[in-house]
């Protein structure tokens, strides 16, 4: 079967083709991507970005919203105490909801794998605080050094302090029975 025509030919870049025009029209129609749900619900697609943000009480340009005082620049300028161009906030609920969301405490999403927890508990249960013995244990599949094992145990202590205390407390009666 013969080759398809044009496959063996070298593809050349066309310098005369205007690619900007192809993408420009698609970019104009697309609405801005807004991450915050509060802003997304209050957004008016018929207004500009600056108008929408001004209505919500947000700043489009942070340099204009909080200008650098003239004193810091080396020039002292006296003002009569009035702020020029004070804007009216028509949608203050957006800023209030964002402040409320920001004031909520952040949940800890740090967790350890079940395998690591089981590994650490096994090592502590069988060897106590003897890290050299832990390193020689046959369950030490990854051949961790004593320092690496100690680090893993400390991570477990920091992530689950209550669980660790309960685990150590449950081990003490077992040791007393053995003696």
Automatic annotation (TrEMBL):
It holds the Pfam family Nop16. This is Nucleolar protein 16. It comes from the Eukaryota. One of its GO terms (cellular component) is nucleolus. Belongs to the NOP16 family. Keywords: Nucleus. It is found in: Nucleus, Nucleolus. The keyword Nucleus applies. GO terms for biological process: ribosomal large subunit biogenesis.
């Amino acid at each position: 079967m013969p080759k398809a025509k044009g496959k063996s030919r070298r593809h050349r870049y066309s310098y005369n083709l205007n690619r900007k025009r192809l993408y420009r029209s698609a970019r104009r129609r697309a609405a801005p991507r807004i991450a915050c749900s509060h802003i997304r619900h209050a957004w008016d697609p018929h207004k500009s970005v600056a108008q929408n943000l001004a209505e919500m009480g947000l700043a489009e340009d942070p340099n204009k919203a909080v200008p650098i005082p003239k004193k810091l620049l080396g020039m002292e300028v006296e003002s009569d105490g009035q702020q020029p161009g004070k804007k009216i906030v028509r949608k203050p609920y957006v800023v209030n909801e964002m402040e409320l969301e920001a004031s909520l405490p952040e949940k800890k999403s740090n967790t350890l794998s079940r395998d690591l927890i089981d590994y650490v508990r096994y090592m502590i249960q069988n060897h106590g605080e003897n890290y050299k013995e832990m390193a020689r244990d046959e369950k030490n599949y990854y051949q961790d050094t004593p320092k690496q094992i100690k680090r893993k145990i400390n991570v477990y202590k920091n992530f689950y302090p209550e669980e660790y205390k309960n685990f150590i407390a449950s081990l003490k009666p077992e040791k007393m029975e053995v003696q």
